[in-house]
Structure formats: structure tokens, C-alpha cells
Amino acid sequence: MELRQIEYFSAVNRYKNYTKAAQELHVSQPTISVAIQKLEDELGIKLMERDNKGIRITGAGEIFLAKGEKVLDEIRDLEEIMEDLKPSGKKHLKAAFPSTVGSWLWKVLLRKFPKEYPDIELELSDLGTMDIVTLLKQEELEVGYGVIDLIHDDEIESRAIRGGELKMIVSCSHPFAFQPMISIDMLENEPIIMYRMGSTYTERLLLENMKRAGVHPSLRYVREQSTVFDMVAQECGIAAVLDDQVSAIRDNPKITAKRFARPIEFETGLMWNRNKYLSGSARKFIDFIGRYQDK
To answer: What is the pTM of this model?
Structure first.
């Protein structure tokens, strides 16, 4: 049995088509057919069947596929580790931050990190915490920064960096604008504008606190974050924001931010996949942010 046979079998299963699998692997269709037939002959068992309905993986094929793909994953991980351990050469690191909580880091990473680690090519993305967790688990990212309070996932390791506070933004003519602070029960029947249903930590944090207080939300969702601020300014509702977003409305004379009398606090920090090898570049990245925060 050869690794390429496992790779061919995995690709055919993924596409349920020999031709598409061959195109992905840059080999001919007969090459894949012959390799899989030889694999079945060596094992003495049928792994897949072809009929008028297409390609079907047999029971034995399902077991072979599950074990085989684990082997392929281990090989890829090993290659990645060996590449990381090379003493020289440019390293690449993919990281992500939500601008709502990590804007303070962007300037630091773009200005200071390259000077301290010129051998690391840093690829940064602006993503929400929940999207970051998903990509870490899919191994599309190596490290992320976001709100870590509500991340209860055995696959994710985190390191707290700094705290934050949830606030509400309202138009300057809204009754809340004339209050020194507001309470969670004041949100009853207030139209609250939210960005992307079910996709942001801000939404989860606010709704969890409203539910705990027995307050029923009245939510309106929009597709763009900038639309949230525009609708608040136009007195179409109020909105919840995290600390870093408050700076985005300071120059807007029509909007003001209000704190809760009982602060709704959260913690932000670094996160990574505990089941994946953490490269030297990622460890340097984590150490860098920790050292900068300590200053």
C-alpha cells in the first residue's frame, strides 16, 4: 500500500468522480483507476462500487477512508512541522482579529512585529470571534484573538490578555442619552439593531444578559456593520457595541455611548487549536502580544 493510493481514494470519495479527482491531483483518470484497483487487489476487498447511479463507497471503504485520511493528516502535519523546524527561510503565519475588540493590536502588529521578527510573514484577517473559532478548528488559521468568555470548546486553548465592557450606543436625542447610565431592564421593547444574526459575540453577550434579567429583546438585523451606526444616528433604534467600537463613533455628533449601571464585562485574549502543532512563529506571536500587553 502506498500513500498516493490513499490520496487517490480520498479524492475520488470527495468528488464522487474519477475525472474531477484526477484534475485536482494533476494525474490522468486511468492512473487513479488503476491505483485504486491495485489497492483493492492488495487488500482483497472491495472499497468502492460503480453503477448507473455513480460511485458508492462500501462499508469496508468507509472504514479505510476514515483511517486513511487520519494518516494523510498526520503526514501533512509532519511536513508542516519539519518545514517549521528548518533553521532558515521565511515563515508564514495566518492570524485573525475582530476589529471590534482587537483594533488596538493592529498598529502594534503592523508596525512593531515585522521589525522584531522580519523572518515571519504575517497574514492578518478581520473576522469575528465565532468565525475565528471555526477556522481554528478547521486548521485554516493558526492563532486568533477575540472574546474568550463564551468559548466552551475542548479543541480551543486560550490565554487572557485584557478585559472589556459592553456598551449601548444611542442617538443624542434618545431619552437614554440624558441618563448618566442605563440598566438592562430599560431595554424592554427598545428596538435593538444587530449585525448578522447569530454571528457575533456582541449579540450573544447582550441576549444572554437580557435573558438572565427577564428582558425580552426586540431585534432588527442588518448586513453591514456601518449600517448599524447609520440607523442609530437616524433614530431607528439603539445598538450594543464592544469597547473598541466606541472610538468609531466619537466623531459622530449624532451618536453617544452609554454604560450599564451594572457593567457587562468580558475578557479578550489569544486562542489556538490545542490539538494542532503550534509553530515556532505562532509561539513567538503569542509571546510578543503577551510582552507588549505587560508593558
So the answer is: 0.64
